[in-house]
Amino acid sequence: ALESTKASELDLEKGLEMRKWVLSGILASEETYLSHLEALLLPMKPLKAAATTSQPVLTSQQIETIFFKVPELYEIHKEFYDGLFPRVQQWSHQQRVGDLFQKLNLRARSNKDAKDPTTKNSLETLLYKPVDRVTRSTLVLHDLLKHTPASHPDHPLLQDALRISQNFLSSINEEITPRRQSMTVKKGEHRQLLKDSFMVELVEGARKLRHVFLFTELLLCTKLKKQSGGKTQQYDCKWYIPLTDLSFQMVDELEAV
After folding, report:
1. Could you tell me where the beta strands, DSSP code E, fall in 65-217?
2. With respect to CATH, is domain 193-245 assigned 2.30.29.30?
3. CB 198 within 8 A of CB 211
4. DSSP class of residue 54?
5. Confidence at residue 231, expressed as pLDDT on a 0 to 100 scale
6. Which parts of the chain are coiled coil (predicted)?
7. Could you give the CA distance from residue 46 to residue 40 in angstroms, rounded to a whole number?
8. pLDDT computed for residue 35 by the predictor
9. What Rg, from alpha-carbon coordinates, does the chain have?
10. Low-confidence ranges of the chain (pLDDT < 70)
11. pTM over 0.85, yes/no
């Protein structure tokens, strides 16, 4: 029993150390993301100035559409980075960060309407970064929750931040393309879409964000393709399974896995 208790304490200690490791990663990632936003602000400022002249390169409306909320996003993530940095530097096992993620997700939702100088990004790639950032933040929150004990004061805050993040991603999908509630299949039958949601799938040890669709007789797992130039929303099919072939593993069967 004593050995079991010591093993549990070691697992807890390792999990809490992993929290710091995950957060150190998000700090480095946020620094890179801020540099991408700064790169977008560089062409935006002269274009805005030219819009007021007699020969504008782009109209003010076009600039607003192309660089939608970029300055606001920069301020939001700069505040998040500035808040997270000192907490990681002065780390303790009881340190909380969930409130920062809550605020980040809430502000990003309301604004919906390491630096490498050799890295080159096209304007199209940079403009996709804000949506890509929400996806990555969702995966980070999953990682943090995995290594945060249910008794830790940060646990409910992180759960709420994850809920906000997932709802935000779902709302983006709803706005991009109205969902079709049924799809025609062979012999004139109709397949009803019952529910869809973002989920995390473990693929060869790596966590991947998936969009899963539950139909009346089928479970479909997909990856949302990156969008550009107003293209229709598209998915890559990763796998699907008829519900008749679906089985579940109970928690006690999974053990260490």
Report:
1. 182-184, 190-203, 206-215
2. yes
3. yes
4. S
5. 56
6. none
7. 11
8. 92
9. 22
10. 1-12, 15, 108-132, 171-190, 226-233, 251-257
11. no
